[in-house]
Amino acid sequence: MNDHHTMSGLAARIRSGETTAAATLDACLESIERGDGTIRSFQCTGAEAARTRATEIDRRIQAGEDVGPLAGVPIAIKDNIVTRGEPTTCGSRLLEHFRSPYDATVVARLTESGAVPFGKTRCDEFAMGSGTEYCAFGPVHNPWDTSRVPGGSSGGSAAAVAAGFCHAALGSDTGGSIRQPASLCGVVGIKPTYGRVSRYGLVSFGPSLDQIGPFARTVEDAALVLQAISGEDVHDSTTIDAPCEDLLADLHTPIEGLRVGLPREYLDAGNDDAVNEMVQSAVQTYRELGAEIVDVELPLTDVGIATYYVIGPAEASSNLARFDGIRYGERVAPGPGESLFDLYARSRGEGFGPEVRRRIMLGTYVLSAGYYDAYYKRALQVRRLIRDEFEGVFKQCDILLGPTTPSPAFRIGSISDPLSMYLCDRYTVNANIAGICGISLPGGFTEVDGRTLPLGLQLQAPALGERTLLRAARMFEQATDHHTRVPDSGSSTVDA
Questions:
Q1: Worst-scoring range by mean pLDDT, 44-48, 209-213, 285-289, 331-335?
Q2: 177 is catalytic
């Protein structure tokens, strides 16, 4: 992939007048029109508002203004991140007609950097799912094999980038919802350190776990978007009070001597054989790049799912209490003589899908009298142990290497057991629990039923370790060609 096909290369072409922001956006919209009827990655395209933004970018460039590093690049937005005047449904019937009166901070920062935010990509309802099968408006299909899931909950964003409908997209990651779909769709996805990116304007699932991050085709493109959206925000008290460093400064620095930790728990016998082979191949690549491979242990890996599915649903139960059909969300027609409580119950029962109801009930249970100490308090104690375990391991190594998911993409509808679905996030949830940063990038491919499916390599680094993380990811990407392969389906504009 040469500079002509990267976001920085595209922005340079738009700034130089070789092409325009309006023409670039129109190419994306035409591509979506041709190919997204099968993939179904977009809930809406917001074409009119986006064309207004693109036209303004072109006017400013013609006037000699510096419009920013992402000049004219169209970037899609996950449907749980609000955009002014546009729908934000969170994949739920409860918010089907909601229009936000303001832009999320990340959307405003993309605009300030010259990008053209456009459209809303489909997601699991209220970001709860691992396959984007729980979207109330229909599932998203994986561009590599449309009978399979793209991952979740940010499956629409991952699929849109993989299919070439846009150059980058935003997602949110509460327990792996950026990294897991990035893995299954063969693109790059970054979960930043907790607090590096503002959550203002993100419809909250688990506020102590949620973090917004980018999808892109290359590490450098993803880093450019992350740079644009990072930084302290007065609207979000959990953002880190520190100057925003240059995340691209070390991107092309060789990694000779870098200590790469390989947790033995990540090469589990329960993984698909191709996944373990991919990890071993990546280890060899890093050795050839001059890195030192360090064997480490993360014994609390196996308790991450249980811990996450206490903390996450508990926070979701509290957050989603506001969606009652009166203060927020769609309200059912009241029945004769119906009490207010019954109206609440019917509005929520008909508005929320089964997975959201399941997690609300679980969260309410673990927070209830008599069970708080046994479940929620204990989960918080284990959370501290997981955080301490990572801190200890990062004294032995600079980054961690392993699989993003235990298997390639599964077929739509093939997993009916919620517990089996939850285990898809086995290797991703602990990064959210501990607040560290992680990235999934294309690590290899496998053949399943005659179709080529991508496999994701996950790298993790300490809190605020993005510069080292991105450098290690970029050096691997440069030494391999996995990121250059694209699915047969879809109508790509990225490589046009």
A1: 331-335
A2: yes
